[in-house]
């Protein structure tokens, strides 16, 4: 059952300017392996992390560098979660995450769908919220 969706759009040129002005952001936002990527790929990964936070309903307990986007052999992007971030996602009852990313025309975008085995599984679902 789908329990959350998230989408994000990043202007690649603006993202590059922010990183150029504040290079330490790379260390705060990306894993060591991700930092080696080109700016447009980093922008797509930033969008993916933002979309994940939206799909999960907030960032409490999540750490950016514990969210890594890694490609499968086919090239399909996948979340690799570690540390307390993996624990938080588990505690929220999330059993599956689906990610799609793209970059074109100066923009990077990502879409995330979060699934749980039971619609009522996420502990932070507000009372009266639709399942």
UniProtKB/TrEMBL annotation:
InterPro entries (UniProt xref): 4-PPantetheinyl_Trfase_dom (IPR008278), 4-PPantetheinyl_Trfase_dom_sf (IPR037143), ACPS (IPR002582), Ppantetheine-prot_Trfase_dom (IPR004568)
EC id: 2.7.8.7
Top-rank taxon: Bacteria
Enzyme class, first EC level, given as a word: transferase
Pfam families given in the database record: ACPS
Alphabetical UniProt keywords: Cytoplasm, Fatty acid biosynthesis, Fatty acid metabolism, Lipid biosynthesis, Lipid metabolism, Magnesium, Metal-binding, Transferase
Residues at which Mg(2+) binds: 8, 50
GO molecular function, one term: magnesium ion binding
Cofactor(s) of this protein: Mg(2+)
Compartments it resides in: Cytoplasm
Catalyzed chemical reaction(s): apo-[ACP] + CoA = holo-[ACP] + adenosine 3',5'-bisphosphate + H(+)
GO biological process: fatty acid biosynthetic process
Broad class of the protein's primary localization: cytoplasm
Annotated ranges, domain 4'-phosphopantetheinyl transferase: 4-87
SUPFAM superfamilies per record: 4'-phosphopantetheinyl transferase
Any one annotated GO CC term: cytoplasm
NCBIfam families membership: acpS, pantethn_trn, PRK00070.3-2
Known function: Transfers the 4'-phosphopantetheine moiety from coenzyme A to a Ser of acyl-carrier-protein.
Family: Belongs to the P-Pant transferase superfamily. AcpS family.
Protein name: Holo-[acyl-carrier-protein] synthase
Organism: Microbacterium thalassium
């Amino acid at each position: 059952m789908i329990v959350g969706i998230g989408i994000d759009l990043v202007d690649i040129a603006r993202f590059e300017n922010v990183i150029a002005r504040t290079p330490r952001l790379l260390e705060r936002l990306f894993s060591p392996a991700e930092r080696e990527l080109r700016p447009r790929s980093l922008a797509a990964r930033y969008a993916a992390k933002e979309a994940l936070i939206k799909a999960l309903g907030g960032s409490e307990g999540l750490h950016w560098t514990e969210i890594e986007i890694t490609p499968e052999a086919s090239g399909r992007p996948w979340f690799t979660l570690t540390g307390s971030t993996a624990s938080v996602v588990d505690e929220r009852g999330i059993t599956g995450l689906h990610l799609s990313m793209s970059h074109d025309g100066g923009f990077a975008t990502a879409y995330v769908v979060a699934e749980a085995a039971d619609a009522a599984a996420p502990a932070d679902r507000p009372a009266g919220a639709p399942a």
